[in-house]
TrEMBL record:
Record-level GO BP terms: spliceosomal snRNP assembly
Originating organism: Sipha flava (yellow sugarcane aphid)
Keyword Membrane part of the UniProt annotation: no
Name of the protein in its database record: Serine-threonine kinase receptor-associated protein
Signal peptide (residue range): none
UniProt xrefs under CDD domains: WD40
InterPro entries: WD40/YVTN_repeat-like_dom_sf (IPR015943), WD40_PAC1 (IPR020472), WD40_repeat_CS (IPR019775), WD40_repeat_dom_sf (IPR036322), WD40_rpt (IPR001680)
Similarity annotation: Belongs to the WD repeat STRAP family.
GO molecular function: kinase activity; RNA binding
PROSITE patterns assigned: WD_REPEATS_1, WD_REPEATS_2, WD_REPEATS_REGION
Gene that specifies this protein: LOC112685195
């Protein structure tokens, strides 16, 4: 356990639960963070400080899923107004809108930012070509319940999705055919593909499991002391973070499965967590309407964490949270 106190940066601005987030890659201007919220107003922030950059306005319902392309030039969102929207991340303006017949829960860009994948409560996955019409170029059928997450996978040669039918499925994006199905005892609540695309991280029930991205064989599984809503693997695969119904953020050793640290900062269940592209921090979103940024290495000078003192007396425990607005 670290002798330093974890002091998260609290990003205010949302007025309802924060349910999804996405980081860009590292750009010439740093990296960026986008958040989805049930207030219907996805936000863009500087990733290392949480400083607010802008709000994308146009949805008429809760926003469930967001995506940034690698360069942070284009953003996407899916919402309860049955629409997926494309945004200019530099100006905040709406570029395109794709109509669905039910709530859009998930959106994801291909690596070249030409295609957008969506998953909805219609039980359908779709791929849209952003250079062509607003009609889907491929539609995938097979899930028997609403889709929670969808991502391009294996250098865009595959699509991976999870749904309320307790399955994770792999698809061929050209034919729209299902090529693999993984069944779970509980609904997979989060899905992450590592940045090097070698490991798939899946949260389900009170477990976090890790799968080889090529063979789709399970390589590790860890039981967590709460119902897990979300998990993220560090870029060096030494640790992962997760959160869920008990309001805590857990940092766990990937190899041993032992808890390294746990922190209570949120005042509601944790819905989403992701490591930053440099691995120096992780961001979490909660039912309490806030995003929080947590240091991976507590006490390190990074971003707005300039001075962190060792905990040496009870007074140190009264240290106030840094707030990024």
């Amino acid at each position: 356990m670290s002798s330093f106190k974890q002091t998260p940066l609290t990003c205010s601005g949302h007025t309802r639960p924060v349910v999804h987030l996405d980081f860009s890659d590292i750009t010439d201007y740093g990296y960026f963070l986008m958040s989805a919220c049930k207030d219907g107003k996805p936000m863009l922030r500087q990733g290392d400080t949480g400083d607010w950059i802008g709000t994308f306005e146009g949805h008429k319902g809760a926003v469930w899923g967001v995506a940034l392309n690698k360069e942070a030039t284009v953003a996407a969102s899916g919402a309860a107004d049955f629409e997926a929207k494309i945004w200019d991340a530099k100006t905040g303006g709406e570029v395109q809108s794709f109509q669905h017949k039910h709530i859009v829960k998930s959106v994801n860009f291909s690596k070249d930012s030409i295609f957008l994948a969506t998953g909805s409560n219609e039980k359908l996955l779709r791929i849209f070509d952003l250079n062509k019409s607003n009609e889907a170029v491929t539609t995938f059928t097979g899930h028997s319940s609403g889709i929670k997450h969808v991502m391009f996978f294996q250098n865009d040669r595959r699509i991976i999705s999870c749904a309320d039918d307790k399955t994770v499925r792999i698809w061929d994006p050209l034919s729209g055919q299902e090529i693999h199905k993984m069944e779970f005892n509980a609904i997979p609540t989060s899905l992450e593909v590592s940045r090097d695309e070698s490991i798939v991280t899946i949260a389900h029930g009170n477990c976090v499991s890790f799968w080889n991205a090529d063979s789709l064989s399970k390589v590790n599984e860890v039981t967590v002391p709460t119902l897990v809503n979300t998990a993220s693997l560090h870029r060096d695969k030494s640790m992962f973070v997760c959160g869920g119904e008990d309001l805590k953020m857990y940092k766990i050793d990937y190899n041993t499965g032992k808890e390294i640290e746990s922190f209570k900062g949120h005042f509601g269940p944790v819905h989403c967590v992701r490591f930053s592209p440099d691995g120096e921090l992780y961001a979490s979103g909660s039912e309490d309407g806030t995003l929080r940024l947590w240091q991976t290495t507590i006490g390190k000078t990074y971003g707005l964490w300039k001075c962190v003192d060792k905990v040496s007396s009870p007074q140190d425990l009264l240290q106030q949270e840094i707030t990024a607005i």
